[in-house]
Amino acid sequence: xxxxxxxxxIFAALAAxxxxxxxxxxxxxxxxxxxxxxxxxxxxxxxxxxxxxxxLPFCTHLVYGxxxxxxxxxKLVSLNENQDLDQGKGHYRAITAxxxxxxxxxxxxxxxxxxxxxxxxxLTLLESSAGRISFINSAYTLVKTYDFDGLDLSWQFPVVKPxxxxxxxxxxxxxxxxxxxxxxxxxxxxxxxxxxxTALVRELKNSFRHDNYxxxxxxxPNVNSSIYFDVPAIINNLxxxxxxxxxxxxxxxxxxxxxxxxxxxxxxxxxxxxxVNYQVQTWMGGRAxxxxxxxxxxxxxxxxxxxxxxxxxxxxxxxxxxxxxxxxPQVKIPGLxxxxxxxxxxxxxxxxxxxxxxxxxxxxxxPTKRFGTYGYRLGDPDRDYEHGLWCSFEDPDTAGNKAGxxxxxxxxxxxxxxxxxxxxxxxxxxxxxxxxxxxxxxx
Length: 443
Description:
Blueprint: H1 3-25, E1 29-35, H2 49-52, E2 61-69, E3 76-77, H3 81-84, H4 91-96, H5 98-101, E4 106-112, H6 119-126, H7 129-145, E5 150-154, H8 168-177, H9 190-209, E6 214-219, H10 225-228, H11 231-234, E7 240-243, E8 257-258, H12 276-285, E9 293-298, E10 300-305, E11 318-319, E12 336-338, H13 339-345, E13 362-364, E14 373-377, E15 389-393, H14 396-409, E16 413-417, H15 434-442
Parallel strand pairs: 1-2, 1-16, 2-4, 4-5, 5-6, 6-7, 7-9, 9-16
Antiparallel strand pairs: 2-3, 8-11, 10-12, 10-15, 13-14, 14-15
Keywords: Disulfide bond, Glycoprotein, Secreted, Signal
GO biological process, one term: chitin catabolic process
GO molecular function: chitin binding; chitinase activity
């Protein structure tokens, strides 16, 4: 071989090596979730199909959520027939028609999620082979009739109980006491339900195979993956698994303690399972290919009121009053703020001189890129700490950090939960969907 030929061969090999990560990441998934309940919100929180269109060029998949289960028949049904079906406003048809404009986009119908939160009927369905058949037949009919590309199962399994944050001393004594006590399981038939869910996934995929429909799983927040999912048995029948690795701490689950709701890595003296990295390692440890694991990124934050026991540093975890968690003016869910609502609470020209409940929060960033961003307002100590507030929220920087984690680990992509809570109007910085954009660019 001539020296020129040798040099060219070496150059080609180096070029292939250098560009291999870029080629691999070119297929990274961006799963965009769209909560159809936003249609009926009032005021600035209302989100229609036209509002989400600027996001779609950034998405590889759109999950329209959520359909639910009819407990009497075990059939998959629209939760709002007047809104979704042809005899109503026809949103199912309108949403799948977007594929003509965005031909690379896969549109899946979401099942369950927070829109249909009665876990009992989901477990009951699993326990009956006839119930599973009824579900599968109805799911196939909905997908085919309305031209969806498949189904995303946000199956409603019972969630784990929240764990108290412990200091070093209390953690030591708790470990000594734990062997002599036992926690009541949230589901005494979890082994049975795991086997039955495996059967459902297998049977559902078999019914979809002829039409090449996709089947995906979204693991909802605080669902124990090691209990309910036989990873080696189901993973080959799933196109991807999206881990909704957030809401580990919420005002509803943890009314007396404010803390990061969606850390990337484990925090000191916290539950070691309550972070993105642990959830990813659990699935990879179960032999799930990295290429099928999607990391969920929320587009919202969680807020707790502060009181006299909360201290003055703002550093979490913080003791908080049990009652009265605030809600944002757009979404109007206690303890939850969309990204534009969180952004509006940070210092800006319009709130610089405001007081009381309208005063801006002091923002604290995350130079470690491990835990998240938060903001707080201590309140007036002379008025029983009225208007004290602590919020931790996802922003473009933290979303970018999580996308960077996905890229570094060679994972399958990101999931945006959801488009309606991102800044779809561009009210914060002028850019629409800043969290989606920041995460997409880091991929």
